[in-house]
Amino acid sequence: MKVLFFANTDWYLYNFKLSLAQAVRERGDEVLLVSPPGPYGEKLAAKGFRWIAAPMERRSLNPLRELGLLLWLFRLMRRERVDLVHSFTIKCAVYGALTGRLAGAKRVNAVAGMGYVFTGDALLARLLRPVVRALMRVSLGGGGARLIIQNSDDVAMLSKAGVAAADMIRLVRGSGVDCARFLPPAPDAANRTGFRVVLASRLLWDKGVGEFVEAARKIKADDAAVEFVLAGAPDPGNPASVDEAAARAWQAEGLVTWLGHVDDMPALFAQADVVALPSYREGLPKSLIEAAACARPLVTTDVEGCREVVTHEIDGLLVPARDPLALAAAIARLRADPALARRLGEAARAKALTDFDERIVIAKTLAVYDELETGRRRAGA
What is the dihedral of CA 190, 196, 200, 205, to 10 degrees? Predict the structure, then answer.
């Protein structure tokens, strides 16, 4: 079987789907990776995968450009004789499924959160919402398709909206994390000279970056020993991206330490006393489950996706979204109560092992492939 992975960045394929691609290859199937051009294409190729740069612009709304991309995808699938296309994020899911259906391929659409179109309040997002819903219904029609959703809230929402029939939806929680790589730090590895709070994500407003900065402003006014660390880069392809100048201004003001993009996430979390993600909505946040695997105490928002990872007072603390004062209070509480922080971190590690280890996630994803492949063989019999 030949499987095509289609994502909106090569970074996404490398950081979120490399382990799955390796598992598909190890069981004897062929993998083709497709995304817009970027620096991670060479890294994927170095891992022995075929990677093809797609003529795609993430924010494009030009009808001719988008039709050209659809035609390019269709021709690629026919030329490569693709058996199954697995697409990630909403735009790729719609385009991959539409062209996959026309090319006669089975389709697996993985929607990791509802994205800007479904969660944004801007006029453009509201205008695009019904169009995307309709396209998703068409792309998932005709049999031979499954929709993978990462949290139970989104499963209920999409079923209610009629985007996909309930029997087509599969709940697979996240991309998984390598719990043998993300480990609790050695006792002497923690940040002992102060108290470090880390937010690791793309610099997007809807990740709660603004609330994180305001929480830093409040806490540092009383406790200068607390360090707030932003680990991540702006994402110009996303309308909610934070401008780089804003991040530099916050750092110049002494509110945060901005690291930019970080490759060594286990080392980052080893130096964190608390990991925070005050997001407005998530599919299933990988940075939180990585931090959980490292036994870090978590503070996140009581929203879709985040509450799949954190149960309040059990393995982390939940706060309301868009509330920097509540975020600051939760961080201050963990600062004042090391025993609570340690208990929450240990429980987070236990949950990561039982629910989010990548071996569990990969096995569930491959089971979806096998379900479709079995259906294809029966149809051809």
Answer: 170
Cβ atoms < 10 Å from Cβ of 343: 15
Cα distance between residue 25 and residue 80, in whole Å: 16
User: 141-158: per-residue pLDDT in tens?
Assistant: 777 999 998 888 888 777
Higher pLDDT, 43 or 378: 43
Please write down the long-range contacts of 127-132, taking CB distance under 8 Å and 24 or more positions apart.
132/90, 132/94
**Confidence class for position 61, pLDDT limits 50, 70, 90:** confident
**How many other CB atoms sit within 10 Å of the CB of residue 241?**
18
353/5 Cα distance (integer angstroms): 27
- DSSP-derived secondary structure letter, 199: E
Task: Please tell me what DSSP assigns to residue 279.
Answer: -
Q: How distant, in Å, are the alpha carbons of 67, 167, 245, 258, 279 from that of 304?
A: 33, 22, 30, 27, 9
| pTM for the model | 0.86
Kindly list the distances between the CA atom of residue 196 and the CA atoms of 219, 220, 230, 335, in Å, as whole numbers in the listed order.
12, 12, 11, 10
Which DSSP state fits 312?
A: B
Total residue count of the chain as it appears in this document: 381
What is the torsional sign of CA 215, 221, 226, 232? positive
SS (H, E, C) 52-96: EECCCCCCCCCHHHHHHHHHHHHHHHHHHCCCEEEEECHHHHHHH
Instruction: Transcribe 113-130 into DSSP letters.
Output: S-HHHHH--SHHHHHHHH
Q: Helix, strand, or coil here: 198? A: strand
Rg (CA), the chain: 21
